[in-house]
Amino acid sequence: MKAATHRVAHEPAYVLHRYDWSESSLILEVFTRHHGRIALVAKGAKRPSSNFRPVLLPLQPLQLNFSGDTEIRTLKGAEWMGGHVMPTGESLLSGYYVNELMMRLLARDDAHEALFDAYAAVVQVLATNHGDAQAATQSSALRAFELLLLREIGLLPSLEVQTSTLAPLDPDARYSLAPEAGLREAEAGELAALRGVEWLALQRTLDDRAPFSATVHHVAGMEAGLGAALRTQLRMLLNYHCGVTTLRTRQMIRDLQGL
Fold it and tell me: Are 174 and 194 in contact (CB under 8 A)?
């Protein structure tokens, strides 16, 4: 007797990436709240008459219906949940950067509900016009998301102790995040290192009941030099675990800023 096909309905999700599967269909990489990152085939999605065409966009909150027990499931229905418009300009590129991180670092079929909530929050920030403070607000949101992503997938060490010795941090000493060694005392000349008091404060925000908003608020209040140092520390760690020197979307943003 044939086993029943597994069906999922009304699943909160975001499209991370899409690519052609045939003349009329797409393969979607989506991030779902309860099933993690999964692959779906959207049959006929490229046809002009398809109901999927205006819905399957990145950085938009969706509810999906899908079925199947194989590596690539079949999309049965998709509904846009509203809430915000598509980010534009540099905000859109920042959203693609977040999606590239997710594609490179998240294993399939591994649920991360807290990370899903943080992803939804950072996308909301990117889609909102913050006026003159927009760049600073979005930068703080990106740093918060990077920290939460690294912690959620087990790549961020405790920021309360030195990783190799478990010795407590000296609030006045300077420490760096090394990809293979974790948090360690900084060597002379490491300009991007942060003092122990800063790492300890970041750990407290990550442990907050609302870690995304708490971390955004804390990073936004950091002095410009400290914020830049944190960005450098996280970028080195992320690039190492992504296996690249520079992420493609980051290079695109850099090129556009150069123009």
Answer: yes
Give 205's contacts (C-beta < 8 A, 6+ positions apart). 211, 214, 215, 217, 218
Query: Which residues, in sequence order, are CB contacts of 258 under 8 Å at separation 6+?
Result: none
List the one residue out of 154, 241, 163 whose CA is nearest residue 199.
163
Q: Can you read off the two tokens belonging to residue 159?
A: 């920021």
Model pLDDT for residues 110-125, shown as the tens digit of each residue: 999 999 999 999 999 9
Task: Quote helix, strand, coil % in the chain, to nearest 5.
Answer: 40, 20, 35
pLDDT given at position 258: 66
Task: Indicate whether this model's pTM tops 0.90.
Answer: yes
pLDDT single digits (tens) 204-229: 999 999 999 999 999 999 999 999 99
* Contact assessment for residue 192 and residue 175, using Cβ atoms and an 8 Å cutoff: no
